[in-house]
Please model this.
Amino acid sequence: MGRLLTIDELARETGLEESLLRFYESEHPQELPEKVLRGDLLLFPPQAVPAFLRIHARHTGSRTPPLHRYARVIAVTSGKGGVGKSNLALNLAVEMQRLGRMCLLLDADMGLANIHLLAGVDPGADIREIIAGKRPMAELILEGPEGIGIIPGGGGVLQLADSNRAQRLQIIRALEEVESRADIILVDTAAGMGPGVRDFLLAADEILFVLTPDLTSLADAYGLLKALHQAGPAFPPARPVYSVVNMADTVQQAAGVAVRFSDCAHRFLDREVGNIGYALKDATVGAATMRRTPFTVFRPQARVSRNVHHLAAALLKDERPGPRAGSAFGRYLQMAAAGMR
Ligand SMILES: Nc1ncnc2c1ncn2[C@@H]1O[C@H](COP(=O)(O)OP(=O)(O)OP(=O)(O)O)[C@@H](O)[C@H]1O
Ligand SMILES: [Mg+2]
Model:
């Protein structure tokens, strides 16, 4: 049946105001698919998107609804540091690009930006110029391996993003500008929910938790999910959360970790976490880092590279058909303006 949508997500998918959706719902119930009750939430099946757009097109007399393409924004995160977020984010971007998606990788690790090191590119413009409005965000995008786009972190971002929320929102505003240029934007964050990370986590469409077999990784990841959960409407129950287990010794070990995380999330937070797979521990990762090359480029046939290929395919399986009409960063800015975060 596909993933069920909240009214908020439906508004984003269709690009229509929530109040307008409610109006169409009351006027044309017979043209809309049945809603589904989950807990105390009423959710819409994915077929509701074209159905609402058809009604809207008729109302406005336009044949083609005003659809733009916006990227799917996925934040890669973890409770504990050093679990492999940056490596996975970079190599996932490479693999999804190979699978035909235009990928943009944003280094949002304000403390220890290192995507440019792993990808072998030199950071270009200073983000301060973008914040000051002197240069467009698009100029900051570097061409990375396999043609992925990279927005490097560090430098100006480090101080600016950590010090001032208004400036952070300014970065998000600048990012909104590039959202229609990519199919997927992967955001590599720092661990935990520091002030520099929070906005990016809440703005993203989906969150990918990187776990390891290490016990503290699981506890810290749960702590982070709980903190997000407590953000209330900024992190609605239907917002997709995934896990990936990195640096496992065996597939069985990885599966055990994933199940423990999703069990805790389900039991204590009533949240569903979908596991997209695992990447085993592999010396190829370190060897590729030494060469400043993503491991999927350095050794595409290595075990860990094949693992990441499957992870990319699993993420793409959950892709919604058709273009999205709303922007993730735009939605977040609207909520911020309304004082909801
Ligand atoms: N599957 C793997 N097999 C072996 N080593 C790995 C694997 N994944 C990551 N590593 C190693 O783990 C270390 C941390 O990786 P990485 O920098 O990607 O983690 P991170 O979560 O981004 O860290 P931080 O929280 O500091 O940003 C690196 O030395 C990397 O080479
Ligand atoms: Mg990192």
Summary: The longest helix spans residues 251-269. Residues 78, 81-87, 109, 112, 190-191, 246-247, 279, 281-282, 285-286, 289, 304 surround adenosine-5'-triphosphate (ligand 1) (CB under 6 Å). The chain has two domains: 7-67, 72-317.
